[in-house]
Amino acid sequence: MDKYRVLVLGGMTEARELAGRLAARTNIDVVLSLAGRTREPIGYPVPLRIGGFGGVRGLIDYIREREIDLMIDATHPFAEQMSRHAVFSASETGVPFFVLSRPAWRKAEGDRWTDADSIADGVVKLGKKPRRVFAAIGRQELAPLCDAPHHSYLVRSVDPVDPPLDLPDARYISERGPFALKAERKLLSGEKIEVVLAKNSGGDASYAKIVAARELGIEVVLVKRPKAARAETVDNVLDAVALARQRLDSREYRGV
Ligand code: NAP
Q1: Tens digit of pLDDT for each residue in 136-149?
Q2: How many C-alpha atoms does 68 have within 13 Å on its Cβ side?
Q3: Hey, whose CA ends up nearest to atom 43 of ligand 1?
């Protein structure tokens, strides 16, 4: 019997969980697609395809050639381009489609947040006075830090920053989340961090730094999310599994 083919566009923890839960069903084949940014992606419970599709046209061809029955955009909330491509290719091909996007963090009592529209804006908002900055924004978009070389940076990313930034005072930590509150507290106080630069990624895995900053009274310059794609969206894995089943059940079964 032919199986339903589900393409999950991944890049965040929830995508891996979603793919695993869908693949546990006997009538579904799942392929999880990753951009290939992380050098050693951690174990995945389903077959992977790694690397870009070659733009929106490439994604459209992939959906058609593989006869995808359902596509789910479970990319990171800041993966703006991939999400745009997904919406466009879904409407071009007519493949059932929805988005899994975890909720943004919301300000809690004691948070000292300064909103930024982009990383570059966030760097400006670090201010003119030299400060000890913890930059937890990944390694792909670090270039704007070089516009503010007067700060002292501690940069954390999954993979090493190579080559290092052209900055007089920057140190690097390569670490993969999830991060525990105790360790985040120790890091921020031990390093005498004065301000955290982060993206409003949402989710639990990297929230501890926000809580630690709150407890220690440290400012967080928080980059707002890009505009969400216009598509049906669920905000957790279980709802995504349920919606996937609903979408597949309402499709005529291709099997013999
Ligand atoms: P992006 O700017 O939205 O996408 C740039 C290009 O990378 C896309 O056009 C596509 O190339 C390729 N791509 C992105 N996600 C892909 C996927 N799941 N499968 C296949 N190709 C993909 O994305 P980004 O911000 O560079 O993020 C790259 C990946 O890292 C994403 O999967 C995202 O979920 C994950 N991630 C991003 C962040 C972040 O803060 N941006 C944080 C954590 C994880 P083609 O045009 O050639 O198809």
Answers
A1: 999 999 999 999 99
A2: 27
A3: 76
| Residues 121 and 161 grouped into a single domain | yes
Residue found by looking up tokens 């052209």 in the block:
166
Q: How far is the CA of 82 from the centre of ligand 1 (A)?
A: 6
pTM greater than 0.85 (yes/no): yes
65 within a domain of the structure (yes/no): yes
- Residue nearest atom 30 of ligand 1, based on CA coordinates: 11
Ligand 1: does its nearest atom lie under 6 Å from the Cβ of 78? Answer: yes
For residue range 159-182, what is the model confidence (pLDDT) as tens digits? 999 999 999 999 999 999 999 999
218 part of a folded domain: yes
Number of domains in the chain: 2
> Which amino acid would we find at residue 43?
G
Contact status, residue 207 vs residue 180, Cβ threshold 8 Å: no
pLDDT digits (tens, 9 = 90+) for 32-64: 999 998 877 777 889 999 999 999 999 999 999
CATH number of domain containing 213: 3.40.50.720
